Input
Amino acid sequence: MFVDSELEGLRQQTIEENEKLRPLIENRKFHTRTVAEARLLTLAETTLEDATDISIPSPNGSIVIHTFSPPSPKGVYMHIHGGGWVIGSAFARDQKLFEISQQTESVVVSVEYRLAPENPYPSGADDCEIAATWLLENSEKNWGTSQIVIGGESAGAHLAAVTALRLRNEHALYKKIVGLNLVYGVFDLSMTPSQKLGKDKLVIPTETLEWFFNHYLQSNESRTSPDISPLYADLSELPPALLTVGTQDPLLDDSLFMAMRLRAAGNEATLDIYPEALHGFTVLPGTAATVANERANQFISSCWS
Output
């Protein structure tokens, strides 16, 4: 699918909503700020009382997972927050995570992974892998369900893909991963054409992408290494995936290319492209966000057998 009729109908309304948001977005310009300043622009929302935090042991101490659980969950949705591996928190989207839990009848588990530049690659990816492994081994005991969907936005979608690939390669219980919800993900840190041509885009222009990449990658690792850029990985034997992206997102090509490579590898991959939508549109006010979030919830629910 390229752009179906329902999504095409959102075009003009999305353009108008983008213009209202332009002053707020242009004020951020992460690449002109220090890490501390960038983090102040993305302070967490108030934590809801419905949340429960669990500490998972790891070689580096412990990893906190922030959870919401309905009365009779059918599965577990492991959510990995975005923020370019540098900003953001598992505690930053409580209202949205609570709504996902209720609407998909799932335990929503958000991972508080270590951030760069203090903890560059592979720290965040390692934490997500440890959290996912713990869920594979403990979700049945804790919540009475063993089915897991992994997903996230932007850098969170990147870490979701990396986590799924690591588990496929290394974990006997991998088949319990039944879906991937990849929302405007970054899958090629060597830069796709749309990333390179995005210097005038809102939210994450090319300079901002480079700012995030340089904080995350502080070693001599190749940017086309499959563990860094999952677009270059062997993508066989992955679960069904939903990829969501807007046409005004510099990461557009990442989702286009990833969806095609997933399909070519024999997987089921649905690609939803939202005309004129910006990077991050699903957490911004707007009609496109409402539609995209509903479709994501439907996808997650469809993964529960």
Observations:
- Residues 159 and 173 are 19 Å apart (CA to CA).
- The chain has one domain: 5-302.
- The chain has a mean pLDDT of 93.
- The domain at 5-302 is CATH 3.40.50.1820 (Rossmann fold).
